[in-house]
Prior knowledge:
Blueprint: H1 3-14, E1 30-33, E2 36-39, E3 42-45, H2 47-54, H3 64-73, H4 82-90
Antiparallel strand pairs: 1-2, 2-3
Helix pairs in contact: 3-4
Organism: Aldrovandia affinis
Protein name: Reverse transcriptase
Amino acid sequence: MHPLLHTVFKQIAKANLRLNPAKCSLFCQQTSFLGLVVSVRGVSTDPTKVEAVEKWPSPTSTGEVPSFLGLASYYRRFIVGLANITRPCTS
């Protein structure tokens, strides 16, 4: 067994956690997690989730605006100047 993997398993056991083998993927180059893609290159947006945001219907009432802003702000770390872009919607 790879030494790093052994260390990870040891820490999981030490914390009294259990893994479900059916939900585990080992030695993958990338995986999707919470709407993000985690890979050897780092963390990026999941293209399918970005597409869902792009296709989101325009808000038709003031009550729908905060819902959309909440959805869009999930990716705020990937959107330069999001606060400036959304300022008209938050005023």
